[in-house]
Amino acid sequence: MTPGNRQAQLVAKIDVLKQELLTLGDLRPGTLSEQYNVCGKAGCGCKADPPRKHGPYYQVSFTWQGRSHTQFVRQENVATTRQQLRNYERLRTLVEAWIAAGLELAALRFGTAPVGPRGRRGGARRAAPRAKSQ
Ligand SMILES: [Zn+2]
After folding, report:
1. What is the distance in A from the centroid of ligand 1 to the CA of 54?
2. Which stretches within 25-132 are classed as H helix?
3. Where are the domains of the chain?
4. Ligand 1 center to 56 CA (angstroms)
5. What is the DSSP code string of 8-37?
6. How far is the CA of 36 from the centre of ligand 1 (A)?
7. Span 49-105, pLDDT tens digits
8. CA 52–ligand 1 middle distance (angstroms)
9. Rg of the Cα trace of the chain?
């Protein structure tokens, strides 16, 4: 494939990504979790054997602008919330794909070195241990 063909291919790919971005509905970042609680009331079923804990309660946890947040979600909003979270993940996937195509396109247009996959080129920048769990 000639560099010109590859450029045209990347431009077309970015165009497809833009079109899909337009179709995204409501979105929000985060992870949905389900919780069951035990209360302090004496004789409550949540401490029976087997326990019938209170819940489920739903919450979305996310980090935004460097700060972590937790928001409670009503049961009736759980399905919609799941869709919002999926839309957000799709947004990130599309944006990452656009960035990757943009980097490759810029390198082709300027005749500069392409950016390698993570861990190959520029590895020193990410030399910190990856022990951090999510
Ligand atoms: Zn209880």
Report:
1. 6
2. 78-110
3. 3-115
4. 13
5. HHHHHHHHHHHHHHHH--S----EEEEEEE
6. 10
7. 999 999 999 999 999 999 999 999 999 999 999 999 999 999 999 999 999 999 999
8. 8
9. 23
Distance, CA of 121 to CA of 124 (rounded, Å): 8
List CB-based neighbours of ion ligand 1 within 5 Å. 39, 44, 46
> Do 56 and 34 form a contact (C-beta atoms < 8 A)?
yes
pLDDT at 3: 74
Distance 59 CA to ligand 1 centre (A): 19
The partner residues of 22 in beta bridges, in order of sequence, read none
Q: In angstroms, what is the span from residue 133 Cα to ligand 1's centroid? A: 33
CA of 50 to the centre of ligand 1 (A): 13
* pTM assigned to the model: 0.76
Residue 14, both tokens: 């970015």
